[in-house]
Amino acid sequence: MAKSQTILITGILGQDGSYLAKHALELGHTVIGGIRGEADSDRTWRLKHLGIVEDVRFVPFDLVDPASIDDAIRGTAPDIIFNFAAQSSVGESFTHPVATAEAGGIGAVRIFEHARACGNGIRVFQASSSEIFGDISDTHHSEDSFFNPKTPYGATKLFAHIMAEAYRASYGTHVSTGILFNHESPLRGANFVTRKITKSLAQVKLGRLEKLTLGNLDARRDWSHAKDFVQAIWKIMALDKPDNFVLASGKLTSVRDFVGMAAAALDIRLDWQGEGLNETGVDRKTGKVVVSVDPQFYRPYDPAQPAADIRKAQRLLDWNPSYSLADLVGEMVDFDLKAETQ
């Protein structure tokens, strides 16, 4: 992507879209953000934090409104569309399954169809998810694994993923997908467990919150920094042929250990006591319970997650994550501690 191009990013107000926009702007490209609703200060805080809000042009874009998609694509004539827009919370997908499917599934296909109708001159990146694997017996998840999602979010992402492959095979449309495992940053929404952990523990440290309450502490996830994924996604779209890539760190960490790392970054040393719903994290210095478990935060369905196989991305993209989990957690803690003291 040597020449300057026009980049349309849906979901630009979110974590991934914001980092991708900054990366594209730094490379000299024109960035257009497709958004639903107004670009007010409360919604553009990530772009402001990155110092790029004035460099982005916003256009109306609603995945459930075909006319807005048509107007946005025809009106901006993008070279590449990065589709990050969707209902992005697995937990919320249980509450709003229909809305999740309409936006993340059918909405994605509408984008593919526009790329096809424009003569396949537009390249599309579709953000897929590790949730598409669901409950399978593989020891490692790869691009060739069987998909068996059990959540509305995962099922929706799988539909879009399969349709991306169908458009490639049937129409020659340049649609690539990134099967994204958990990726975090200070720009992650507070409704995600990682930001809940770092934000709440910062409040505990400052005496503004008694304790952090979580669900399944044994749940294990593969966490990476969103910035690392942006680098890989950009490399994916520079390939001559579209393809699917698993993006992850290849390492699993429990929620309990993530909490411990965040607490340690705040100079809080935790002793874990009890089991199951009675487990608590006790501040070794004060003897106070600062972490507890509440069954209301358990997911209705939460299968064990095997490790990710990222060898394809390593081989074809010459890519490896550059951030360690400790670096990521420390950055998030510093961000939340600073935000709480401003």
Q: What can you tell me about this protein's structure?
A:
This protein has helices at residues 15-26, 45-49, 66-76, 90-95, 97-117, 152-171, 193-205, 226-237, 255-265, 311-316, 325-341; strands at 6-10, 30-35, 57-60, 80-83, 123-129, 140-141, 175-180, 183-184, 212-214, 220-221, 224-225, 244-247, 253-254, 270-273, 280-283, 289-293, 307-308. The chain is an alpha/beta fold and 342 residues long. The strands form five sheets. Strands 3-2-1-4-5-7-12 form a seven-stranded parallel sheet, with helices on both faces. The protein has a four-stranded mixed sheet with strand order 9-16-15-14. A two-stranded parallel sheet has the order 6-17. Helix 1 crosses helix 8 and helix 3 (66-76) packs parallel to helix 5 (97-117). The radius of gyration is 20 Å and the shape is globular. It folds into two domains: 6-185 and 223-251 and 306-323, Rossmann fold (3-Layer(aba) Sandwich); 193-219 and 254-304 and 332-341, UDP-galactose 4-epimerase, domain 1, CATH 3.90.25. Strand 2, helix 2 and strand 3 form a beta-alpha-beta unit. The longest helix has 21 residues, at 97-117.
Order of helices and strands: EHEHEHEHHEEHEEHEEEHEEHEEEEHH
Mean pLDDT over the residues: 93
Spatial strand order of the main sheet = 3-2-1-4-5-7-12
Q: What proportion of the residues is helical, as a percent range?
A: 25-40%
Q: What is the count of distinct domains? A: 2
CATH level-two architecture of the largest domain: 3-Layer(aba) Sandwich
Can you count the beta strands?
A: 17
Global morphology = globular
CATH T-level fold name of the largest domain: Rossmann fold
Task: Report on the biggest sheet.
Answer: 7 strands, parallel
Which class of secondary structure composition applies to the elements? alpha/beta
Output the CATH class name of the largest domain. Answer: Alpha Beta
CATH superfamily of the largest domain: NAD(P)-binding Rossmann-like Domain
Q: Strand portion, in percent?
A: 15-25%
Rounded to the nearest angstrom, the distance between the terminal CA atoms is 40 Å
How many helices? The count is: 11
